[in-house]
């Protein structure tokens, strides 16, 4: 995997992934930034959420769960000293669908955290305490169409 970073002035950078996607990163105004993009640490948090949500959707589909939406809300704590690494991250999943079983969601979360999500494994092995919670919401529109 490869990526490139190009300084675009101040403390802003354009990042381009090997797959051709681009994202702008910028620091907060307190550090000379102009708020033109996400902070680099925010992108790490977004990557973790995306990786885990990808796993959850994939695992639940393979388990033949009728999922119509998956959301992941993340809350992170960082060390007070430099480097201000993540110390704790909590992921809360909201899984929407028709007849989705709690046990299947719980299993999917554990498989993601313990086996499949590279970001989660990397961060937890680096000392970040990662916790999870979830809720299953019945999709009224899916129930009506069945």
Helix content: 25-40%
- What fraction of the residues are assigned to beta strands by DSSP? 35-45%
**Taking Cα atoms only, what radius of gyration do you get, to the nearest Å?**
18 Å
What is the domain tally? 2
Q: Indicate the CATH topology of the largest domain.
A: GMP Synthetase, Chain A, domain 3
Coarse structural class? alpha+beta
What is the typical, i.e. mean, pLDDT? Answer: 95
Largest sheet report: 3 strands, antiparallel
Write down how many β-strands occur, each being a DSSP E stretch of 2 or more residues: 6
> What spatial order of strands do you see in the largest sheet?
1-2-3
Q: Assign the CATH class of the largest domain.
A: Alpha Beta
Sequence stretches where pLDDT stays below 50 over 5 or more residues: none
The CATH architecture of the largest domain can be given as 2-Layer Sandwich
Organism: Aquirhabdus parva
InterPro entries: KH_dom-like_a/b, OsmC/Ohr_fam, OsmC/Ohrsf
Pfam family, one: OsmC
Protein name: OsmC family protein
Overall description:
- Pfam families: OsmC.
- This is OsmC family protein.
- It comes from Aquirhabdus parva.
- The protein is an alpha+beta fold and 146 residues long.
- The chain has 2 domains: 1-38, N-terminal domain of TfIIb; 40-145, 2-Layer Sandwich (GMP Synthetase, Chain A, domain 3), CATH 3.30.300.
- The protein has 4 helices and 6 strands, in the order E-E-E-H-E-E-H-H-E-H.
- The chain has helices at 40-62, 102-116, 118-125, 140-145; strands at 3-9, 12-17, 22-25, 66-78, 86-98, 129-138.
- Strands 1-2-3 form a 3-stranded antiparallel sheet, with no helix packed on it.
- Strand 2 (12-17) and strand 3 form a beta hairpin.
- Helix 1 crosses helix 2.
- The longest helix is centred in the middle third of the chain and has 23 residues, at 40-62.
- It is elongated, with a radius of gyration of 18 Å.
